[in-house]
């Protein structure tokens, strides 16, 4: 049986835009352009490379949980080469935290059917970096995360191997499928969608699911169902303007004098 | 007084600084009970006691080193069951966050990651986080279960607070998932002799302007004169001039030192996300229009190949 890969992606506000909070202290998604999280492009890329290494004997489903506009993220992944998409969309999901999102993703992954789940190392908005570990916990399968190199051997019943570069050591990991993998921005530059890919993506199937389809109680998700509560969000005051000098041959000494004055030397 | 579990990050018994910072924060909420796992776990007790740990729960088994993350989750869960703490604090390393997150699922609790401060509150601990590339500061708390909070390095001072630090063996039975992901080999990172990037009081970073791997010697020389860690921008790392483990920014390390020295770094959002919360920021850049100058307390517009070596010499002579 061919390898079933599910890539979890997130639609995020553009990190180069002016991101802010809405009145209910959730991320404001209306005033800032959204896009496929840059870090998830690496996950799509590795899925495509694994499929290529398996002589195309694999099917890649790209999965997201998010509002209507999140379809843009799915389209981008489809235009890169993913085969089909699943979009979980429900008004009751507004304000869902990582615990709720992981619950929805776990149900959707199971509903879709999988041998390998691939995610990015973190989202560029929430930046927690814990969703893949939580997903593995919920699915009850091995967690093979933060890989800078990944490969699958033996197809659907095989193993996944990879290299995890930690703070104190670099580790080689191995686990049997099914498993949850996450990949870093060191795993390999993501490809640009080709014109042909963009045209083909328009014809690829996008399945929509809501909470009822996944048999999830609305009370367990959304802002009310969240297990964390943001009490306040304040804009960081702009740093006060500092002293800028032009180097006229004494710039290094001037900087040293400043550091001495600040007691760093 | 309520007990607070503190997960200990250590290397063969040598406790890493962020764990000592966690003890400072834990004492604001209750009595710290440390959990130390793996080889050298018992050797951590003396240091932990000096910094406020009333108890040190230890466990050692080959599983902690041979398999990824899950054995440690099993142990922390056992400690949670034994202690029934008011909160669980874990250092915000990549592994620490994963351990904390899986624990939170198991004990049906909310999780907050990357806190930069923590205080006691009427409805449980309140965590401060720096979000959207440090453009916003949020205060949050956990509304369900035992608060599980991961805390970034340099978020609190290390304080001496002698306590009993009684060592107790923690009994751990490993779950079926514990042996799911095997660590087939491990290559320790070579030590540079410099402070760890995220823990350092001073960080000296180089960017695109450094213009070549060999030129990073200039950055390293300045770092060594100041006893600092070396960082690099994404541009410098992508160009292959410096290792990814030293990358400061959104997809690298996020640092919050007392002093950040940026050399030849323009200050794109990607970089600012990782250093904007530094206490004092200084920069050297030949482009007067570089966005980094919007952040600095002191900036020199000039050629880093002139300014940085002069600064290094001056630091050395002032230090005698």
TrEMBL record, chain A:
Pfam family of the protein (one): ETF
Keyword GTP-binding in annotation: no
Keyword Electron transport part of the UniProt annotation: yes
Segments passing through the bilayer: none
Cofactor(s) for this UniProt protein: AMP; FAD
A single MF term (Gene Ontology): electron transfer activity
SUPFAM superfamilies xrefs: Adenine nucleotide alpha hydrolases-like (SSF52402)
GO cellular component: cytosol
Ranges where the Electron transfer flavoprotein alpha/beta-subunit N-terminal domain occurs: 24-218
Keywords recorded for this protein, A-Z: Electron transport, Transport
Subunit text: Heterodimer of an alpha and a beta subunit.
Entry's family note: Belongs to the ETF beta-subunit/FixA family.
Function: The electron transfer flavoprotein serves as a specific electron acceptor for other dehydrogenases. It transfers the electrons to the main respiratory chain via ETF-ubiquinone oxidoreductase (ETF dehydrogenase).
PANTHER family referenced in this protein's UniProt entry, alphabetically: ELECTRON TRANSFER FLAVOPROTEIN BETA-SUBUNIT, ELECTRON TRANSFER FLAVOPROTEIN SUBUNIT BETA
Name of the protein in its database record: Electron transfer flavoprotein subunit beta
TrEMBL record, chain B:
Alphabetized SMART domains for the sequence: ETF
GO biological process, one term: fatty acid beta-oxidation using acyl-CoA dehydrogenase
Domain Electron transfer flavoprotein alpha/beta-subunit N-terminal residues, every copy: 4-183
UniProt entry keywords in alphabetical sequence: Electron transport, FAD, Flavoprotein, Transport
Residues that bind FAD: 208, 233-234, 247-251, 264-271, 285
Note describing how the cofactor binds: Binds 1 FAD per dimer.
Any Pfam family the entry gives: ETF
A GO term for molecular function: electron transfer activity
Names of the cofactor(s): FAD
Family: Belongs to the ETF alpha-subunit/FixB family.
Function: The electron transfer flavoprotein serves as a specific electron acceptor for other dehydrogenases. It transfers the electrons to the main respiratory chain via ETF-ubiquinone oxidoreductase (ETF dehydrogenase).
Subunit structure as annotated in this protein's UniProt entry: Heterodimer of an alpha and a beta subunit.
Name this protein carries in UniProt: Electron transfer flavoprotein subunit alpha
Source organism of the structure: Streptomyces silvensis
């Amino acid at each position: 049986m061919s390898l079933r890969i599910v890539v979890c992606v997130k639609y995020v506000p553009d990190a180069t835009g002016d991101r802010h909070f809405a009145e209910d202290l959730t991320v404001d998604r209306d005033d800032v352009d959204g896009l496929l999280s840059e870090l998830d492009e690496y996950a799509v890329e590795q899925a495509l490379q694994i499929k290529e290494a398996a002589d195309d004997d694999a099917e890649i489903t790209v999965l997201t949980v998010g509002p209507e506009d999140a379809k843009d993220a799915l389209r981008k992944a489809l235009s890169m080469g993913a085969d089909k998409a699943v979009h979980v969309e429900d008004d009751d999901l507004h304000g869902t935290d990582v615990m709720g999102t992981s619950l929805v993703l776990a149900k959707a992954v199971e509903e879709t059917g999988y041998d390998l789940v691939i995610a990015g190392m973190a989202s560029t908005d929430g930046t927690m970096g814990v969703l893949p570990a939580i997903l593995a916990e919920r699915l009850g399968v091995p967690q093979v995360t933060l890989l800078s190199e990944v490969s699958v051997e033996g197809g659907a019943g095989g193993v996944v191997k990879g290299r995890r570069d930690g703070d104190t050591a670099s580790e080689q990991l191995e686990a049997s499928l099914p498993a949850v993998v996450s990949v870093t921005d060191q795993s390999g530059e993501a490809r640009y969608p080709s014109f042909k890919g963009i045209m083909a993506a328009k014809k690829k199937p996008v399945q929509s699911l809501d909470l009822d389809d996944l048999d999830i109680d609305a009370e367990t998700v959304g802002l009310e169902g969240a297990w964390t509560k943001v009490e306040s969000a304040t804009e960081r005051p702009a740093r006060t303007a500092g002293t800028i000098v032009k180097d006229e041959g004494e710039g290094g000494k001037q900087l040293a004098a400043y550091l001495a004055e600040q007691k760093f030397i | 007084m309520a007990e607070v579990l503190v997960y200990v990050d250590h290397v063969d018994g040598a406790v890493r600084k962020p764990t000592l910072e966690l003890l400072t924060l834990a004492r604001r909420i209750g009595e710290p009970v440390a959990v130390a796992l793996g080889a050298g776990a018992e050797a951590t007790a003396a240091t932990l006691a000096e910094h406020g740990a009333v108890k040190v729960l230890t466990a050692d088994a080959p599983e902690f080193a041979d398999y990824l993350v899950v054995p440690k989750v099993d142990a922390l869960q056992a400690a949670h069951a034994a202690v029934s703490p008011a909160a669980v604090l874990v250092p915000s390393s990549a592994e620490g966050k994963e351990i904390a997150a899986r624990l939170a699922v198991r004990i049906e609790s909310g999780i907050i990651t990357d806190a930069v401060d923590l205080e006691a509150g009427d409805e449980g601990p309140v965590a401060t986080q720096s979000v959207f590339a440090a453009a916003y500061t949020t205060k949050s708390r956990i509304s369900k279960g035992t608060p599980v909070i991961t805390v970034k390095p340099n978020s609190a001072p290390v304080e001496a607070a002698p306590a009993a630090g009684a060592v107790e063996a923690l009994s751990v039975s490993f779950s079926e998932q514990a042996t799911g992901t095997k660590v087939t080999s491990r290559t320790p990172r070579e030590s540079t002799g410099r402070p760890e990037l995220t823990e350092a009081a001073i960080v000296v970073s180089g960017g695109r302007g450094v213009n070549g791997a060999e030129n990073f010697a200039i950055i390293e020389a300045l770092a060594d004169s100041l006893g600092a860690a070396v960082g690099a921008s994404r541009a410098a790392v992508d160009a292959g001039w410096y290792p990814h483990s030293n990358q400061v920014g959104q997809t690298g390390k996020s640092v919050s030192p007392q002093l950040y020295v940026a050399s030849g770094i323009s200050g794109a959002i990607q970089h600012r996300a990782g250093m904007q919360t530094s206490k004092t920021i200084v920069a050297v850049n030949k482009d007067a229009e570089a966005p980094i100058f919007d952040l600095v307390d002191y900036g020199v517009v000039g050629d880093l190949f002139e300014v940085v070596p002069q600064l290094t010499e001056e630091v050395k002579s002032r230090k005698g």
